[in-house]
From TrEMBL:
This is Transmembrane 9 superfamily member. It holds the Pfam family EMP70. One of its GO terms (cellular component) is Golgi membrane. Keywords: Endosome, Golgi apparatus, Membrane, Signal, Transmembrane, Transmembrane helix. Residues 1-26 form the signal peptide. InterPro entries: EMP70, MFS_trans_sf. Belongs to the nonaspanin (TM9SF) (TC 9.A.2) family. The keyword Glycoprotein does not apply. It comes from Gossypium australe. It is a multi-pass membrane protein. It is found in: Endosome membrane; Golgi apparatus membrane.
Length: 566
């Protein structure tokens, strides 16, 4: 292969020249595209990863090449950098999703197999440019599992690339390439092999989702500010004028709005568990964003889930018990036990059933006895003591519930309301909008958890999570206001149920994914899918319910502080 690398002297000279004069693009594109427009993709070079100056033309390796290879006219800096761009065989049109498209089917000759194997042995990487954005990836991997003798190594060529593209309106702003470690061509032996090269495209429209959230937030904020402004003007009139008005609206239930909810122990336990799960999610995202869960660090995510859940149990105990005591609860020990079992209980029962099914099938999904003992010890020696310590700290916090208005002795009667103001229709409205914000991303998450894909773009997933929290909080606040305006003061449980209803929508999506987007079958796979997804969606219900209630509590306190309550 002919080396197209550049010497350090030429690179230094090129940097100097480029720092003195502006770079003139040879491509006249303004980088704006409409849906379906072809976006330029060029294959650049290949070479050993540890020898950055030793680079070769991309098609010096026997990849699938287009019928007519088109060379790109390089600018001066590109030539000095050793770039030799030619048209790539992949077609990545703007905002067009592709799932496992075939580039070509090729029979690799014995010489080509040897050629590729030597490249894999030297950790060859490839470089491409998509709309002038660089892409890197390795062409293959060496299997060294448990082998010390190099003659026993296995050599594999990647045959499937997934391109993940992030765009903003009509611009491409980021792209990455991931190789599927499950789709390989074995190059170990000197013989002809059949290779089918494929690729997948995944487009992320995060900015559009952000705009939707901002519009929704602005819309709700505008409506609430206008309505509240009129309410404050009306309620701020002098006492004589107020007596002439008909008693309607949220002000006139000020003596009931802070009346503690029914089943206060269960309510406090749900808030404690939801706060713990929220903290767990934040920590997981922090680890993901710093690169802990890279694709080949197998098991890191599950290890982190177990350990962080155990370490954050004190948060659940503190929040649940302190809030329970604020609600004038007396049996804080029972509340603490309920908090510890509220999420772990259903999860433990589900695990027992599914692990029994896996044992019956002799599947590797069945956890060994030693692993079960370790998990039980973690729960006994870490989770439970921290839960108790958090509960004791919450009980001793002596915090009082901050209510701007005094609660009357007897509750006010709730007037008859239309059917669409009942709990279930309100939950449906509250869950639909947050679910719409995450719907696009759910398929790729499911395909990663329940399939063979690898999910690595955690920064985008974190943005989606922030969007989910914002929409959940605002839609719950809006529905709480309308509930109070209708003189329905039982908003505590309603705000929690409305906030958590997105978890029910996610579980409904599970049905769609199982029957329409996957090929899963059999009792074991079905029970595992719906069993563990029920636990995950239940966790989402508790977490988002906590977010919805906290946002509504902040809002209700604010509006009642703004008026004079007798």
């Amino acid at each position: 292969m002919r080396n197209v690398g550049s010497s350090p002297a030429f690179v230094i000279l090129g940097v100097f020249i480029l720092s003195c004069v502006s770079h003139v693009r040879s491509d006249a594109s303004d980088h704006r595209y409409k849906e379906g427009d072809p976006v330029p993709l060029y294959a650049n070079k290949v070479g050993p990863f540890h020898n950055p100056s030793e680079t070769y033309r991309y098609f010096d390796l026997p990849f699938c090449s287009p019928d007519h290879v088109k060379e790109k006219k390089e600018a001066l800096g590109e030539v000095l950098n050793g770039d030799r761009l030619v048209s790539a065989p992949y077609k990545l049109n703007f905002r067009e999703e592709k799932d496992s498209s075939v580039v070509c089917k090729k029979k690799l000759s014995k010489d080509e197999v040897v050629f590729f194997r030597k490249a894999v042995e030297k950790d060859y990487y490839f470089q491409m440019y998509y709309d002038d954005l660089p892409i890197w990836g390795f062409i293959g991997k060496v299997g060294k599992e448990g082998k010390s003798d190099p003659s026993e190594y296995k050599y594999y060529l990647y045959k499937h690339i997934q391109f993940d593209v992030l765009y903003n309106k009509d611009h491409v702003i980021e792209i990455s390439a991931r190789m599927d470690p499950h789709l390989l061509v074995d190059l170990t032996e000197d013989k002809e092999v059949d290779a089918e090269f494929m690729y997948t495209i995944h487009w992320f429209s995060i900015i559009n989702s952000c705009v939707t959230v901002l519009l929704l937030t602005g819309f709700l904020a505008t409506i609430l500010m206008r309505v509240l402004k009129n309410d404050f003007i009306k309620y701020g009139q002098d006492e004589e004028a107020a007596d002439d008005q008909e008693e309607t609206g949220w002000k006139y239930i000020h003596g009931d709005v802070f009346r503690f909810p029914k089943y206060k122990s269960l309510f406090a336990a749900a808030l404690g568990s939801g706060t713990q799960l929220f903290t767990l999610t934040v920590f997981i995202f922090m680890l993901a964003l710093v690169g802990v869960f890279y694709p080949y660090n197998r098991g890191a995510l599950f290890t982190a889930l177990v350990v962080i859940y155990a370490l954050t149990s004190g948060i659940a105990g503190y929040v649940a018990t302190s809030f329970y005591c604020q609600l004038e609860g007396t049996n804080w020990v029972r509340n603490l036990l309920l908090t510890g079992c509220l999420f772990c209980g259903p999860l433990f029962l589900t695990f027992c059933f599914l692990n029994t099914v896996a044992i019956a099938y002799s599947a590797t999904a069945a956890l060994p006895f030693g692993t079960i003992v370790v998990i039980v010890l973690i729960w006994t020696l870490v989770t439970s003591p921290l839960l108790v310590l958090g509960g004791i700290a919450g009980k001793n916090s002596r915090a009082e519930f901050q209510a701007p208005c005094r609660t009357t002795k007897y509750p006010r009667e709730i007037p008859p309301l239309p059917w669409y103001r009942s709990a279930i229709p309100q939950m449906a409205m509250a869950g639909f909008l947050p679910f719409s914000a995450i719907y696009i991303e759910l398929y790729y998450i499911f395909a990663s958890v329940w399939g063979h894909r690898i999910y690595t773009i955690y920064s985008i997933l974190f943005i989606v999570f922030i969007i989910l929290l914002i929409v959940t909080a605002f839609i719950t606040v809006a529905l709480t206001y309308f509930q109070l305006a209708a003189e329905d003061h039982e908003w505590w449980w309603r705000s929690f149920l409305c906030g958590g209803s997105t978890g029910l929508f996610i579980y409904a999506y599970c049905l769609y994914y199982y029957y329409a987007r996957s090929d899963m079958s059999g009792f074991m796979q079905t029970s595992f899918f719906f069993g563990y997804m029920a636990c995950i969606c239940y966790g989402f219900f508790l977490m988002l319910g906590t977010v919805g209630f906290r946002a509504s509590l902040f809002f209700v306190r604010h509006i009642y502080r703004s008026i004079k309550c007798e």
